[in-house]
Design brief:
single chain; glutamate dehydrogenase (NAD+) activity; binds 1,4-dihydronicotinamide adenine dinucleotide; seven-stranded mixed sheet; 19 helices; globular; alpha/beta; Glu/Leu/Phe/Val_DH_AS; 14% strand; binds 2-oxoglutaric acid
Length: 503
């Protein structure tokens, strides 16, 4: 399947592509991203961002070094029986625990052919900073297995996932109090369920075993709202930006999401929900890019409809509600108000940054912008809401899930009916005293008691708004961009934790 993507485009695709909104001839997008290495590794880029922010603080060098250094890393190789002849295939995986300043450490598990040690370390470091920015009391971690999940059956993936989980259990790199994984690219609730099952089998008497992982199916202790959380958090950040006079002045945009032209790259868990919430709020999602081509419609596409088509066909080719473009990365350059990269790191880089026309970039992916690209776009007035803030909704709701698992009760169970009857009584009193009758709809609206999903989404919105404001205030106070400000916020919080406790 992948080899098709690296073949030269057929003539018909090239000629169709010439009439494209970017105005250049499309090329196929290599997979995985090839740009981050041309501008240093992803890990070196995260270090560059960290160093810039650290330079704006007064913490001692040794302390800053401790914050930056990855605390623990495990590399595992494990055999799994594959295929009809039951031969073994050896898989390679990693788990990095970047910072133990708070426990457990937290971060997703990625399945991708591009996974390697430096990528996992970079992603783990981002998790430390991200958790600090949104006041989630965890250290940062990340795991990954080098494989393309598209090449394996569900049964094979189950065997691989359980073997990887067992390898992490053997090394003490997964447990409710030490290290709690979650989904990332290429994994989702299904994989999290398999991992929980493996952990429970290893520790059958651990009453808190379900808290060893988040992003699980709701039927097995997961929380309502985790699947949508990262995309919804991206949306909350954008919404906040678009009602902040400082941002509007900087970007020249009018307030509110309605009517804004949005381009999304990566139509998986995060990209799909980010697009869906923007569309629901009245934005026009004018382009959606996947690794094997994109869909473009100046009047906007309906993300639900496009997702259904993509899920069935594994491509946008043939989707009639927009123009098919046989590329991905060039779509980032389309004229739009808001760009949401939700795929890989390094997609906005020194080679394309000058051509980015979006006024706001909301980094749903981890590390989509290289430092060189950031410098170019800053000069061009692009307002970037950085990954460690913009995509922190996922880990925020993971935190809620972990708390739910430790309390062994769903949020709202004790309060929902109590609240409903209290408000219903109030409405009845108001009706009596005002001698009016409220409609059933009005009654419901007032007296509805919040259930788990409403509480989760409310906690998520509060977190994203508060964190956005804190980062923006820091950015203004330090006269720096939002990314450096977010790193300053993170570094300060981690540093203060160390200083309070002693190293
Ligand atoms: N799942 C989560 O809760 C969180 C994910 N993230 C980040 O968001 C990004 C996306 O993650 P998920 O949506 O969970 O992964 P996913 O696996 O659900 O979806 C990723 C999508 O991107 C597509 N893709 C891959 N390469 C591409 C390319 N070159 N161009 C366009 N599309 C491409 C894939 O085909 C897939 O549909 C990653 O950077 C991840 O680290 C960040 C925070 C939390
Ligand atoms: O939900 C989590 O614990 C981590 C999500 C994640 O991997 C990320 O934010 O990059």
């Amino acid at each position: 399947m992948l080899s098709n993507l690296t073949k030269p485009l057929s003539r018909s695709l090239v000629s169709k592509a010439n009439a494209n909104p970017v105005g250049r001839r499309f090329k196929s997008t290599p997979f995985p991203s090839d740009h981050s290495n041309a501008e240093g590794t992803f890990l070196s880029q995260v270090k560059e961002y960290f160093d810039k922010a650290a330079g704006l603080t007064d913490y001692p060098q040794g302390l800053l070094k401790q914050i930056e250094t990855c605390s623990a890393m495990v590399e595992v190789s494990f055999p799994v029986k594959m295929g009809d002849n039951h031969d073994y295939q050896i898989f390679h995986g990693w788990r990095a625990e970047h910072s133990h300043h708070r426990l457990p450490t937290k971060g997703g598990i990625r399945y991708s052919e591009a996974v390697d040690e430096q990528e996992i370390k970079a992603l783990a470091a981002l998790m430390t900073y991200k958790c600090a920015v949104v006041d989630v009391p965890f250290g940062g971690a990340k795991g990954g297995v080098k494989l393309d999940p598209k090449k394996y059956t569900a049964n094979e993936l189950e065997a691989i996932t359980k073997a990887y989980a067992q390898a992490l259990i053997d090394k003490n790199f997964i447990s409710p109090g030490l290290d709690v994984p979650a989904p990332d690219m290429g994994t989702g609730p299904r994989e999290m369920g398999w991992i929980m099952q493996t952990y429970k089998a290893a520790y059958p008497s651990n009453i808190d075993a379900a808290a060893c992982i988040t992003g699980k199916p709701v039927s097995h202790g997961g929380i309502r709202g985790r699947t949508t959380a990262t995309g919804l958090g991206v949306f909350f950040c954008l919404k906040e930006a678009l009602r902040t006079p400082y941002v509007l002045e900087k970007t020249g945009l009018t307030g509110g999401i309605e009517g804004k032209k949005v381009v999304v790259q990566g139509f998986g868990n995060v990209g799909f929900y980010a697009a869906k919430f923007c569309h629901k709020a009245g934005a026009k999602v004018i382009a959606i890019a996947e690794y094997n081509g994109s869909v473009y419609n100046e009047n906007g596409v309906d993300p639900d409809d496009a997702f259904e088509f993509f899920r069935k066909n594994k491509t946008f080719d043939g989707y009639t509600k927009g123009k098919f473009l046989p590329t991905s990365r060039e779509v980032l350059e389309i004229n739009c108000d808001v760009l949401i990269p939700a795929a890989l790191e390094g997609e906005v880089n020194a080679q394309n940054a000058e051509r980015i026309k979006a006024k706001i970039i909301v980094e749903a992916a981890n590390g989509p912008t290289t430092p060189k690209a950031e410098a170019i776009m800053e000069k061009n007035g692009v307002f970037v809401i950085p990954d460690l803030l913009a995509n922190a909704g996922g880990v925020t709701v993971s935190y809620f899930e972990w708390l739910k698992n430790l309390s062994h009760m769903r949020f709202g169970r004790m309060t929902k009916r109590y609240e409903e009857s209290k408000w219903a009584n109030l409405v009845t009193s108001l009706e009596k005293s005002s001698k009016t009758t409220w409609s059933e709809e009005e009654r419901k609206l007032i007296s509805y008691g919040a259930g788990e999903e409403e509480l989760v989404n409310s906690g998520l919105e509060e977190t994203m708004i508060t964190s956005f404001k804190e980062v923006l205030d820091t950015s203004i106070a330090k006269k720096t961009n939002m990314r450096t400000a977010a790193y300053v916020v993170a570094v300060s919080k981690v540093a203060n934790t160390y200083l309070d406790l002693g190293l």
